[in-house]
């Protein structure tokens, strides 16, 4: 089936990603103020408080999302995820300036924010995984594009390392408004996609000509014989009470237990189909055939249902098929999360002085955006290329340590603060590129039945990599101190 896309769809995905990441970006942009108020360790503590609860949320989504989609339908369950995720981010961000200025309050706020952002991220990426690659790229780009928006808001409010309460309050109210608008954008995007999917399905179900039913009846010789598959006919010949199967618009899968067949009687047209189910014992002579039909997951009655193989949609298959994309994403994200908490410990050569951590943060933001723009022009989803770039980023990671301890080999003499900013730029360009390409590659490496699970698995890999990088940053931070 050809997937149609509205011109505004990538923009909606882009703005959705901006809105669920902007709150956390606003907290990270206050690196100087938070470090001065609570000490340099607060950045690592905030990262752990943000990503550890979100990892638990993503893990629970793997268990309950499929049930919710089946129970309430895809659109309704996704609407609840949007409201919980985006709406929660908006409410929490609006309330943050009024919380007590203590480390415990900050960490509690960040933990709750991580949970809501994780729900919004999972809902958006699961939908984007079934869309053209441009939607996933827009989602990935929007995730990091909240940085320039926060920096622009801070510049307009003239915020510095010692911002007043009024400036902080205005910043977070603006961020909360963006989150609320993101909720509207997500609902609009998901509603449009749902309508696109529902329309062709309804037309296909209601547009089947009655001639197909007539043709089946003519082929079988009578209406009653047309209703009976071969196994049921044999069972009737043996004097057993059996049910019958007929589908006027395709075939229905056979439920595993109890064994039953459904007969669909047409009353004036396909729109008036009524389904009748009759429970019956199974004759020994047909038990084997019935079991085989159940195991195959298909039954022939005017049409053929392709066998449903549960392995085609399993997480084991996702990991086997998409491991290069998952490994590349994990290395790219993990190394970035290892380096980010070390920014306050980098020593300046005097050029930028105490503004060096803020400058590193800004270079990080714009380099990450650049890395996610490059796939629009040079997209690579080849597993070997992704793995090589990830290993290159991993090999470059230790080059930051000489800028922390002057006793190490004198790399700072090669450029001091400028060399630090260049290092940050290279690291985060690679991080953005690997993140975007890996998220696009993962659904392509698995069968269509497993694309939703690939999206959920990649979201979980992202959270696990963040946590692993932060855990590795704990001993690195102790060494840096």
How much helix is in the residues? Answer: 55-70%
Q: Number of DSSP strands?
A: 2
Helix-strand pattern, N to C?
Answer: HHHHHHHHHHEEHHHHHHH
Amount of beta strand: under 5%
The best one-word shape is globular
CA distance, first residue to last residue = 58 Å
What is the averaged pLDDT score?
Answer: 74
Give the spatial strand order of the biggest sheet: 1-2
Quickly count the helices: 17
Low-pLDDT segments, ≥5 res: 222-311
Description:
The protein has 17 helices and two strands. By secondary structure, the protein is an all-alpha fold. A two-stranded antiparallel sheet has the order 1-2. Helix 6 packs antiparallel against helix 14, helix 13 (about 325-340) packs antiparallel against helix 16 (about 415-445) and helix 16 (about 415-445) packs antiparallel against helix 17. The termini are far apart.
Provide a quick synopsis of the model.
This protein is mainly alpha-helical. The protein has helices at residues 9-29, 31-38, 42-72, 74-95, 103-128, 133-156, 165-206, 211-220, 223-227, 230-237, 284-296, 315-321, 323-339, 356-373, 383-396, 417-444, 451-480, and strands at residues 260-265, 274-279.
Features:
single chain; about 475 residues; mainly alpha; two-stranded antiparallel sheet
Summarize the topology.
Elements: H1 9-29, H2 31-38, H3 42-72, H4 74-95, H5 103-128, H6 133-156, H7 165-206, H8 211-220, H9 223-227, H10 230-237, E1 260-265, E2 274-279, H11 284-296, H12 315-321, H13 323-339, H14 356-373, H15 383-396, H16 417-444, H17 451-480
Antiparallel strand pairs: 1-2
């Amino acid at each position: 089936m050809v997937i149609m896309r509205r011109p505004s769809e990538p923009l909606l995905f882009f703005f959705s990603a901006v809105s669920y990441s902007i709150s956390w970006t606003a907290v990270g942009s206050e690196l100087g103020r938070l470090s001065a108020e609570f000490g340099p360790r607060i950045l690592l503590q905030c990262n752990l408080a943000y990503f550890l609860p979100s990892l638990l949320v993503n893990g629970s989504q793997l268990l309950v999302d499929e049930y919710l989609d089946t129970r309430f339908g895809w659109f309704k369950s996704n609407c609840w995820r949007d409201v919980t995720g985006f709406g929660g981010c908006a409410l929490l961000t609006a309330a943050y300036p009024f919380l007590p200025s203590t480390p415990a309050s900050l960490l509690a706020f960040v933990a709750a924010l991580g949970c809501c952002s994780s729900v919004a991220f999972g809902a958006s990426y699961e939908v984007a995984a079934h869309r053209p690659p441009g939607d996933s790229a827009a989602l990935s780009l929007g995730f990091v594009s909240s940085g320039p928006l926060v920096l622009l808001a801070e510049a307009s409010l003239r915020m510095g390392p010692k911002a007043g309460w009024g400036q902080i309050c205005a910043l977070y109210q603006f961020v909360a408004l963006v989150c609320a608008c993101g909720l509207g954008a997500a609902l609009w995007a998901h509603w449009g996609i749902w309508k696109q999917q529902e329309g062709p399905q309804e037309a296909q179900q209601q547009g089947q000509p009655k001639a197909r039913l007539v043709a089946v009846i003519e082929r079988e010789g009578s209406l009653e014989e047309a209703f009976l598959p071969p196994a049921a006919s044999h069972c009737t010949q043996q004097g057993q009470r059996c049910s019958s199967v007929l589908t006027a618009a395709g075939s229905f899968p056979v439920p595993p237990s109890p064994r039953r067949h459904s007969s669909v009687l047409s009353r004036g047209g396909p729109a008036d189909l009524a389904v009748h189910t009759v429970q019956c014992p199974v004759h020994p002579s047909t038990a084997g055939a019935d079991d085989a039909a159940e195991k195959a997951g298909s039954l022939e009655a005017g049409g053929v249902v392709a066998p449903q193989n549960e392995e085609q949609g399993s997480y084991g298959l996702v990991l086997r098929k998409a491991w290069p994309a998952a490994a590349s994403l994990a290395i790219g994200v993990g190394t970035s999360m290892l380096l980010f908490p070390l920014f306050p410990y980098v020593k300046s050569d005097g050029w930028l002085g105490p503004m060096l951590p803020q400058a590193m943060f800004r270079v990080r933001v714009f380099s990450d955006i650049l890395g996610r723009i490059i796939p629009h022009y040079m997209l690579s989803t080849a597993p070997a290329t992704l793995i090589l770039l990830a290993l290159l980023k991993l090999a470059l990671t230790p080059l930051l340590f000489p800028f922390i301890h002057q006793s190490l080999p004198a790399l700072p003499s090669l450029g001091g603060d400028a060399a630090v900013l260049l290092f940050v730029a290279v690291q985060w360009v690679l991080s953005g590129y690997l993140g975007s390409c890996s998220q696009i590659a993962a659904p392509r490496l698995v069968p269509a039945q497993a694309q939703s699970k690939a999206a959920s698995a990649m979201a979980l890999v992202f959270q696990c990599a963040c946590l692993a990088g932060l855990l590795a940053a704990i001993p690195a931070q102790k060494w840096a101190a």
